[in-house]
Amino acid sequence: MQKRLIEIEEELAQIESRSGEINTAVETAEHDELEKLSAEVTEMEQRKAELLAEKAELEAKEEEARSFDESKATEIELPDEKLEQEERKMFGIETKEYRDAFMANLVGNATPEQRAILADNTTYGDGLALPTALDERIWDQAISAHPILGDVATLRTGMAIKVTKMTPAPITKKKDSDPNTEATFTSAEVVLVGADYHTYVTLSFAEAKMSQGAMEDFLVQEIADVIGEALAKDIFARIIADAGTAQKVTATADTFADVKAALALATLASAPVIYAPAVSYYEIVGAIKSGAPFNMGAALGCQVKLDNAATGITVVDPKLFVLNVVQETVVEAQRDVKEAAFIIGGYMRAEGCLRKTKAAAYVA
Fold it and tell me: How many domains does the chain contain in total?
């Protein structure tokens, strides 16, 4: 109630401030502008009346509640359990308290208070959402190894979606006298339902007693390495599949010529990026031509990025590849008494496609 009263006071102050501005503006305003200002004043007066009425009602309720509390103070007490529940709701996934509770819960060391943070937080349901800091660390590491993951257009929809893939239609010209024909596209709907990406690690009961910091480092490394690499490989494979064989440049001994040819084929890539595995990357950024080193990417006006998930040199406008995340990354644990170990698994579901086939080309 107090929060709403403060919001009302702030909005009333804004109305008063704007009224002062209008009073100054009308002195020099012309006819059309005067009509607009007059309409705005009428609207503000109506809004002001609504706010004052709401304020009066809230103040009356507040006074009534205060009087009731004073008369019944010795008779009514708020249960301690309810107070604790209200406090628990303050610990969202971005807080250190949630992060500590999450990590302790993975290896069965959570206190009753920590389990309550996970179980009773109405915003995050059963408490399985990754702590924000841990999620960011996983993806920072995955993107560091595979820059394509950070470059594509990512949609975190949480559901299957349809996107339209556009393919330029061939243009035929019978003779020189024929009028020019604008490029047209054929479209096809693609349903991105997602593919599963998962990994797991097994920790003995003794290993699970490592510090929280060490545990986080271990999980970040494992999940980022396995899931990140698998997803990046699938993105490059999908780019090549969606581009099709028409966008293929057959590799020759002249890498510079091959890269130029690929760029020339990627006609719909407005901001092309060259991705290459190490075997090609270092040649591209430090090639030897006529006895002097030079950077092919710089010479061609393109960024060149090292990504070992690429099977070969791939030229693509990454923002024209849409990645639909159907399930955000989750981390769960299972206790295996027989093996005296914890099995901790990471999982996500995602799928993407190239929106325009000629936004990419590749050398193979």
Answer: 3
